[in-house]
Specification:
2 helices; mainly alpha
Length: 77
């Protein structure tokens, strides 16, 4: 799996947390709403990246079984 996908997911969740914190400290309702919206966008992006990771793993498994090359890799067990 491309290592950068996991890092992207972590980064998205970190940025969502930052937006939630900033929303809590915001002085105006419009700023709070903006940071809450940004938080949701970061969470959606994180979930999208997680889906990409799952699809990549599934493709890896399908490729393995279509080629039938010995026992499955250790990271699948």
């Amino acid at each position: 799996m491309p290592a950068n996908l996991s890092h992207r997911v972590d980064d998205c969740y970190r940025r969502a947390d930052e937006c939630r914190e900033r929303a809590g400290r915001a002085s105006s309702p419009s700023s709070r709403a903006m940071f809450r919206k940004l938080e949701q966008q970061w969470l959606n992006l994180a979930r999208s990246c997680e889906l990409d990771e799952s699809a990549y793993r599934l493709a890896e498994v399908a490729r393995y079984f279509s080629e039938r090359r010995g026992p499955p890799p250790a990271h699948w067990r």
